[in-house]
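Dear Dr. H.,

I hope your travels went smoothly. While you were away I took the liberty of generating a structure for the chain from your last submission, since the lab meeting agenda had it listed for discussion. I wanted you to have the full record in hand beforehand rather than looking at slides cold. The sequence, exactly as received, is reproduced here:
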Amino acid sequence: MSGGLDSTTLVALARQQKFEIYGLSFDYGQRHIAELQAARRVAADFAVREHRVIRLDSAFFAGSALTDSRLKVPKNRSSEAIGNNLPITYVPARNTIFLSFALAWLELLDASDIFIGVNAQDYSGYPDCRPDYIQAWQTMATLAVQDFDKPDRTIRIHAPLLEMSKAQIIETGTSLGVDYSRTLSCYDPVGFVACRACDACLLRQKGFAEAGLTDPALGTDFSP
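The corresponding predicted structure, in token form, is as follows:
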């Protein structure tokens, strides 16, 4: 749970499917730490069974504009530029590390399902948001857990947003009653207010425009 548009829609979909939800968020030294405040609000809104925020050593995530204040987050890029080449906001192995923590918690809970809000349509070229990556991770996860050799012991990685556009994600969430004013998608918020110019903000704005809706989070302050 990042507190963003995608992960919040994901929570709503999991709830619709009658899953008991355990939310996992990460503090890895990201400059957009305000997202964790949004994640806490979303967790409260959906009354998740338990919400954990895992703190990771930021030194392992160096080299990204999301974790290194010396690097500038790209702003006001065109849709074509956003879709080409790996951007400086890529955080090495981030989803792999996050999913590993989710898998460990899954075993403790004796559960079988992990939901992740990756998206391969309106995204910035991240390699760990591709369908092949998710499929490979599910295979690995099933082999990694206890009782992996039992026929009924299959780990399921749910990525229902994978092939959706941002507009489709927003339409889906809206139909499920998601309050997007509670979410934050910005890579470089000013204090606790979205910058409206980074790739994440632009993709979000594009999604709301294509869905024919107005983003209710514009100008929202997520300060504690």
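Two observations you may find useful: The two ends are 18 Å apart (CA to CA). The chain has a mean pLDDT of 90.

With kind regards,
E. W.
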